[in-house]
Specification:
- With 80 residues, the chain is of the alpha+beta class.
- It has one domain (3-71).
- It is built from one helix and four strands.
- The protein has one helix spanning 36-48, and strands at 3-13, 18-27, 58-60, 66-69.
- Strands 1, 2, 3 and 4 form a four-stranded antiparallel sheet that branches.
- The radius of gyration is 16 Å and the shape is elongated.
Length: 80
């Protein structure tokens, strides 16, 4: 069974001081690395930003990352 960490992506409205969740990215790394936060942020800005200016409004909050355990693949015994 493989464990992945789900990291929520937010779009921030700095004028209204609100933070709206817009998606999730699953991190498969098993160990922490030197630039995990910056690498994830760079990826998420590429995936979720509408344009270059919008990239500044994309943030992640790894403090609220949750552990997600994905089930193992199993064979369907009924398909024999």
């Amino acid at each position: 069974m493989e464990t992945m960490r789900a990291v929520t992506v937010y779009r921030v409205d700095y004028g209204r001081k609100t933070k709206e969740p817009i998606g999730t990215v699953l991190e498969k790394r098993k160990t922490e690395r030197a630039h995990n936060y910056h690498d994830l942020l760079r990826l998420e800005r590429r995936l979720f930003a509408l344009d270059t200016a919008d990239a500044l409004h994309i943030v992640i909050d790894v403090r609220h990352a949750r552990e997600a355990i994905l089930p193992e693949r199993t064979r369907d015994c009924a398909a024999r």
